[in-house]
Amino acid sequence: MQPLSGRDKAYQFVRDQVLSSPAATGTFLNEQELATRIGVSRTPVCEALLMLQSEGLVEMVPKRGAHVPAMSGRQIAELMDLRGVLERHAASRALRAGDAPIAAMQHALHQQELLMNSDSTDAPKEFIDWDGTFHQSLIDSAGSDLLSRTYAGLRARQLRVGLSALFTAANRQHRVCAEHQAIIDALSAGDEGLVHEKIDAHLEVTLQTLLRA
To answer: From residue 194, how far is each of 35, 83, 103, 183, 211 by CA, in Å?
Structure first.
């Protein structure tokens, strides 16, 4: 496996470690600080930020640098809508192939349940990481590389809104786990319509939680 270039290393770090945090919203990113943290020069950091700008994750402001914009209600709604389209499609393909990833999704859910009552400061981020694993497992089961890459490309936005939802609504972690179990149960039953219904319900609750924030 080829080692990552400085630009790709910086891109992945900023996307997955910096932009995924709700605390990043509204801030300006310091290129030199990022370069020091990542262990590269400023040039690959600049290149990475330009890539992130093209994806709408940062805004380059003259004489100020890279700004992390807040996600609007419309953008959050569009994100949830896109997730629904991709997840419903993946679920349908997996069910038709008789290859629904029940075990992988149940494992991810179990890890989330272990984190629900944790006092660790890292627990919310870990909970959302496992949330991503839960949903990505469903997407990957469709057997489409393009579908998997498209969904994975939403990661930074999903992490940010996911963490925001956890801190916005009381007992949201418990509700997420219950909603995830409902999706697994519908998959286990092989009921395509019910799976779609449970996916939509899960995403709608998350959307409404975020819009009330």
So the answer is: 48, 17, 19, 8, 26
In the beta sheet, which residues pair with residue 117? none
Amino acid at 111: Q
Phi, psi of 61 (to 5 degrees): -105, 125
> If we measure between CA atoms, which residue out of 56, 69, 77 comes closest to residue 25?
69
Tokens of 151: 């969904």
- Quickly state the pLDDT bin for 169 (edges 50, 70, 90): low
Whether 142 contacts 3, CB under 8 Å:
no
Q: Is the pTM of this model over 0.70?
A: yes
User: Is residue 97 very low, low, confident or very high in pLDDT (cuts 50, 70, 90)?
Assistant: very high
| pLDDT band with cut points at 50, 70 and 90 for residue 31 | very high
Residues 6+ apart with CB under 8 A from 184: 102, 105, 106, 109
Rg (CA), the chain: 18
